[in-house]
Amino acid sequence: MPDSEKVECQNCKQNFTIELEDFKFYEKMQTSPPEICFYCRLQKHLAFWEFGKFHKRKCDLTGEDIISLFSFEAHFPVYKTSEWYSDSWMPPEMEYNPSRLFFDQLSELQSKTPHPHQFGTKNTNCDYSADVWESKNCYLCRSIANSENLSYSLRDIRCRDSYELTYCYDTEQSYDCTYCFKVYSVKYVFDVRDSFDSAFLYDCRNVSNCFMCWNLRNKKFHILNQPYTKEEYFKKIKEYNLNSWETVRKLKNEFAARVREDAIHRQNMNTKLTNSTGNGLTECKNCANCYFLENSENCKNIFRGFQNKDTQDATAVWKTELAAEVVQITQGYKLKYSIFCTNCRESEYLDFCIECENCFGCVGLKKKQYCILNKQYTKGEYEKITIQIRENIKSNGLRGQFLPLKMAYVGYNLSYAGILFPLSRNEVEKIGGYWEELENASTENIKVSEYVDDIHDVKDDIIYEGLICQETNRPFNVKLDELNFYKQKEIPLPRTYPDVRTIKRMRDLTLIKPFPGKCFFCAKEIIHYYPPEFGYKKIACEACYLKEVV
Questions:
Q1: For the chain, is the Cβ count within 10 Å smaller at the N or the C terminus?
Q2: SS3 for 394?
Q3: pLDDT in tens, 75-92
């Protein structure tokens, strides 16, 4: 076993290194070392994590009207979630054919097997949402839990009565927030904690009544980082006319310039780490090259996860141990090459299976054991056939490869890969993926409203009219509770489609590529995660950041 090995990525042709500890992990998991680099692996994983577009369609079992990220052209049947979890249907099964490629057989099985129209349980009035759990009254939200009265939000936990949150915890009465924790009544903020009644903040902690500020700690009544009396502060705030869309547009540009020129940027966004590398890590130990990972140990090459252990090359994993090459896994154990599974163990090549153990190449199974392509076998038969399948995969040069892109749930352009690793249609089809055409957005029979600069000049009857996105020309609507929220919080009407705003916030947050640089203050060589196009002037090492800011 080599100490380390440099490998040329078969996709991008860049070199990457497989370390001794990686070889030990792959040997333990009985998987082959990767032939493509971390970013190419992540790109493929994200192609299986759908962002999608919400469609009105029918349940393929009952004909009932449903709303789903899966269109009528989905390459598998779509059942209403409650029907999928019921006993009213049986998953199809196939007998393994050694003369055919295993991946072709698995793809065929997927095309025959129903998938639930939504992911998530115990929700109320969350029809226009996906991957939502134990939440209520959420609209156009994705990947949220234990939340209420949210709209246009992504990856949030325990949030309520807010709009346009991305990666927020315990946030209330707020708007346009990214990477915020325990905040109340804030807007236009990024990386803020334990704060309230403020706007236009960057990297602030425990502040209140602050406006256009950065790097503040334990402050109140500040504007542009300068202190004011309470009376002076509120008088000055009134002069800004935040009701106006044009004013807010100018302030966003001005604040972005302040963040570039004046704010001090810590080299990463990590908190409470032990021997770990990456960005957006919280309370992790012995985790390498991980991003937006929390409370995890002995992990490597993970993008987004929580409470994982001894897991590598994974995306969106929760409370999982000893997993490799998996996407969207919850409470998995010894799981490989699988997607969207819950409580599955010692299995590989699974697609949306629940509480399965010792299964291989299965789709849509619940509480099964010793199944191959959904067909039941004895333990002895299972072990004999899986050896044959692994040899088949290896002999065709496919050992160690993730599922083929044709098995992705939605088109590449509607996946997270399409957002973070955009490709043209021809490029997608060249690598074996598919493109999902969006229906033409028509304004026929829609009364289109003109944009009004001041939110208080907007009439209530606008809820019966449409607005046209200034970037995509797609029509969108404003709900009555949304309009009331904007007026109460002095927020001008947005001028782009909700998904456009969500995607922008996600891109602004997803800082996953390291860059070499020097600390602005001490000139020490550092690794940071801010692309050159951000133009940040004051990037600091951990020690200088703590000295200058905290």
A1: N
A2: helix
A3: 999 999 999 999 999 999
